[in-house]
Every structure is written in structure tokens, then in C-alpha cells.
Amino acid sequence: MTKKLKCLVVDDDEICRLEVSQLIQRNPMLELSSVCTDAYQALDYLMKNDEVDLIFLDVMMPGMTGIEFLNCLRSRKQAVIIMTTDKEQAINAFDYEASDFLHKPITPARFNKAVVRVYAIHHQEKKSDNKPEIADTSNVSEDEKFVFIRKPYSIERIPFETIVLVKTLGNYSEFVTEDSKRHTVHQSLKSFFEKLPAQFVRVHQSYVININFIQEVTDNFVLVRNEEIPLSKQGKIDLMGKIDII
Q: What is the number of other CB atoms lying within 10 angstroms of the CB of residue 141?
């Protein structure tokens, strides 16, 4: 049986702590390790317990914010899911390679979607540690129209034109194709981005998008296939240089 992810909940709001704890306890992929009321308590817990796999972290907390907490854990091994009422704070969290963010109030469906993503990445990393041939390389074709990625029992050909966006996952990159499938490769976002053709632009430290799938551009987000992708100042400059505006 696949091992459950051990979880730590960090939130100063009692109701949110209770709701997230209950969602964790009802999810067969998760195990609740502890609940902390502030970032200082969480840091103390992590210093004494090194088996936490996933942290559910509130951003706006008194004393030490969630962002400041992440800054203390730059070399962390735990995945982090941000919980916030403010999407602007979520953008800042992606600079610290948060795995996902949950907008409060948190719905069970959105919670489970985030968990499935983190769970899949976590266990793929474990497999990669034991079997380096699994999803650990990607090679660009000579005519630069597609990429080959390794799967457990095959090599899959992915046309560049079908890639919607690419997201950083630490030393890994996850990209989504137009059929909504997610693929993970053992390459940094920077390395993977260098292999992509001209229709791709890095709009944020954590995201690369295919401009052919853009629906809308705002000051802070790019809407791609109904998903809001954070847009940094430099990302917006680079993006405006790629698209024609009538």
C-alpha cells in the first residue's frame, strides 16, 4: 500500500484549522500529524519532527506571516499548500515554490484536487529516487516541434503545440497539455523553458505559458484555459513583446 502523506496544518483561525483537519482525516491519501496556531509553533514542531510531507499554511498570521515562514524554510523538503483569502498573497507564495493554493473558504472538491496533485508528485519523486529512468529526462527533436519524455514503460512524444503551460515543482517541472493531462519531468523550469519554441513565454518565476492558449491578460493574471496564472512585472513585459495587440 502506498504511504500516506503526513500533514501539518498551520493557521491562526480556529474554524479553518478544524475544517482542514477534518478534510485531511477524511482523505485516504493523508494523515494528520499536528496542528499549529502560528508559524513559530510550526517551526518548533518541524525542528523536532522531520517526517512531515505536506504543510497546509495560512498566509496572514500575526507575529510571523506564512511568507516569512516559507523564507525560513528555503531548503525545506516538505510540499506546501497555501491557504488564503487574498490571491495577491498566493502570487507571492509561488515565489517560494508552493505546490498549490486554496482560496478560502475551502471547498472539499478544490482541496482534494490540490491533494491529488501533490500526492502524485511526491510519489513520482520517490520512484525517481529508486528508478532514475522514470520521467527524468526530456529531449527536443531536431525540428523543434515536439519533445520526448520518459514514462515507466515507454517514451511518449508530446508536440509543443499541445502544451498549455509549464509549472515549477522544485527540481521538477509539470506541464499540462490541451487534453488536460499532466506530465512531470526531472528538469528545472529554467532548463525546460530553454527547450521550448518562441510561442512560450515565462510570465512568472513559477510559470511558463503557451501564448496560443491565452484568453485574457490583466495587470496581475493571465487567463489560460480558464486558469488564472500569476503575472509578474517582468513577465508582463516579456509577454507584451510576444503578442500583437490591435
A: 12
As to burial, measured by CB atoms within 10 angstroms (0-12 exposed, 13-18 middle, 19+ buried), residue 70 is buried
Total domains in the fold of the chain: 2
Do residues 101 and 143 both lie within one domain? no
CB–CB of 2/126 below 8 Å? no
Query: 190: domain CATH number?
Result: 2.40.50.1020
User: Residues 95, 161: one domain?
Assistant: no
Q: What is the pTM of this model?
A: 0.57
> pLDDT tens, 34-68?
999 999 999 999 988 888 999 999 999 999 999 88
